[in-house]
């Protein structure tokens, strides 16, 4: 539907480095801008295409390495339409249950963009959030944080999460997405990323580095020397960085689009192959308690901590 694109469309120019004021040149900048173009293309396909099989055909025509970003964009569009149209109201859920299942992590992140883009009552946001998978729903807050970092002011400070009252963990998930956005705004340059994170409060740094790791492993694409610099720059937060890279490996393994740069990032930062890192995330889910109470540590954070502890132990054994 063209009218939807006219109302809700995002110009491809909005994701360019020039428009956002991001720093960086060369091959990685070109790659990150290509990611933005594929996200927007998937978003517009989701707005315009009423027929789900036809939407899938469009998304699957995107090159495999960028396909997850197109699915993320489509998920944002479908979640937005669920909020602003009277019928149907289950586009996103139908997408997730079907062809979107291999990209389930990206679909949750894409929904989080709607929290940022669409004016929404707190009660509505909570109802949508609470209806999501109890484990993966925090990825929606991650998507919220990425959006605010990517489209917010590109200055020397980091945005503070506007979510603090009823979901104590929400600011942490927000920071994980904010960390991912640094990969784009600082074009994967370890020193510049580190400078931004060091300027933040100490309690935020681990989550920010986790987001950096996820972007490094999923979006790519640093060569070996750059990954070595990133590992050095993160300092004591290597377990969090490695956990983010492992999450990226699992997301790409699940979608059957593992890339050489993911493999390289896993070997240098995680000290293992991408398949081993993905299996580690699966093993960390075993017997995970289903913690739902907002006053307790969410199961999602327990999952992340288990993975981080594995990498901390790995480092201890080496030293």
How do the strands and helices of this protein lay out in sequence?
Elements: H1 2-8, H2 17-20, H3 26-48, H4 52-60, H5 64-84, H6 91-97, H7 104-117, H8 122-130, H9 138-151, H10 170-185, H11 190-198, H12 202-218, H13 224-234, H14 238-254, H15 260-270, H16 274-283, H17 299-318
Helix pairs in contact: 3-5, 5-6, 5-7, 7-9, 9-10, 10-12, 12-14, 13-15, 14-15, 14-16, 14-17
Beta-strand residue percentage: under 5%
- The proportion of residues forming helix, as a percent range, comes to 55-70%
Provide a count of the helices.
Answer: 17
Tally of distinct domains: 1
Rg result: 18 Å
What letter string, H or E per element, gives the SSE order?
HHHHHHHHHHHHHHHHH
Report the major sheet.
Answer: none
Net shape: globular
Distance between the termini: 59 Å
Tally the beta strands: 0
Uncertain parts: none
Derived structural class: mainly alpha
Average pLDDT figure: 93
What features would you describe in this structure?
By secondary structure, this protein is mostly helical. The chain has one domain. The chain is about 70% helix and about 0% strand. The protein contains 17 helices and no strands. α5 crosses α7, α12 packs parallel to α14 and α14 packs across α16. It is globular, with a radius of gyration of 18 Å. The protein starts with a helix and ends with a helix. The mean pLDDT is about 95.
């Amino acid at each position: 539907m063209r009218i939807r694109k006219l109302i809700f469309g995002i110009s491809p120019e909005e994701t360019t480095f020039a428009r956002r004021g991001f720093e960086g040149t060369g091959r990685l900048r070109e790659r990150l801008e290509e990611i933005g173009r594929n996200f927007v293309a998937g978003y517009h396909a989701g707005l315009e295409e009423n027929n789900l099989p036809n939407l899938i055909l469009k998304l699957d025509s995107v090159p495999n390495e960028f396909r997850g970003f197109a699915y993320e964009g489509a998920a944002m569009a479908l979640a937005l339409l669920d909020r602003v149209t009277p019928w149907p109201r289950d586009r996103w859920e139908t997408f997730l249950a079907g062809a979107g299942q291999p990209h389930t992590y990206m679909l949750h992140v894409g929904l989080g963009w709607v929290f940022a883009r669409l004016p929404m009552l707190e009660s509505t946001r909570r109802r949508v959030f609470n209806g999501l998978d109890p484990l993966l729903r925090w990825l929606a807050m991650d998507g919220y944080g990425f959006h605010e970092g990517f489209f917010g002011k590109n200055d020397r400070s980091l945005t503070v999460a506007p979510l603090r009252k009823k979901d104590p963990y929400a600011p942490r998930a927000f920071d994980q997405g904010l960390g991912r956005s640094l990969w784009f705004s600082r074009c994967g340059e370890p020193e510049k990323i580190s400078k931004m994170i060091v300027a933040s409060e100490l309690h935020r740094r681990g989550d920010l580095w986790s987001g950096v790791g996820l972007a490094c492993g999923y979006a790519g694409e640093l060569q070996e020397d750059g990954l070595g610099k990133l590992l050095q720059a993160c300092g004591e937060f290597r377990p969090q960085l490695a956990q983010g890279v492992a999450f990226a490996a699992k997301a790409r393994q699940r979608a059957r689009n593992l890339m050489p740069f993911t493999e390289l990032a896993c070997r240098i930062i995680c000290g293992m192959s991408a398949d081993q890192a993905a299996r580690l995330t699966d093993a960390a889910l075993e017997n995970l308690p289903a913690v739902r109470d907002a006053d307790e540590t969410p199961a999602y954070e327990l999952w992340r901590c288990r993975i981080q502890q594995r990498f901390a132990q790995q480092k201890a054994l080496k030293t």
